[in-house]
Amino acid sequence: MAQIELHPDFKDFLRLLNSHGVxxxxxxxxxxxxxxxxxxxxxxxxWIAVNExxxxxxxxxxxxxxxxxxxxxxxxxxxxxxxxxxxxxxVRIEVITTASGVDFDDCYSRREIIEIDGIPVNxxxxxxxxxxxxxxxxxxxxxxxxxxx
Length: 149
What we know:
CATH architecture: 2-Layer Sandwich
Order of helices and strands: HEHEHEEHEEHH
Shape: globular
Strand order of the largest sheet: 1-2-4-3
Number of helices: 6
Oligomer: single chain
Number of strands: 6
């Protein structure tokens, strides 16, 4: 597994997710890097569980991170196919409620928890990441698949 360097904003956000007990997984480019193919990425993708309890925790997390009450409501996290973007690349965080080809609960049960600078971080497992990348089917996803172990 690759050593991961995180921007301070990413660390702060991950700490908040953990302190509020949000069920989440790091997916996308940072997960690809963790699993052995470090590459440039414009954001950190955070996939969260879609349920009422997790939505309330996610709402609190985003407010504590600095989003205004009018910009973030629990409703953003109670339906599939939602995306909340914060920041600008390369320090953008995208909170998503759906990941192609995979089920959150199944992936969460197989998550890999690693510590980065003292912060426990939930990553999607390699096999689940592969399924997700195949389902996405974009050129960069296919390239990621070629380079993953």
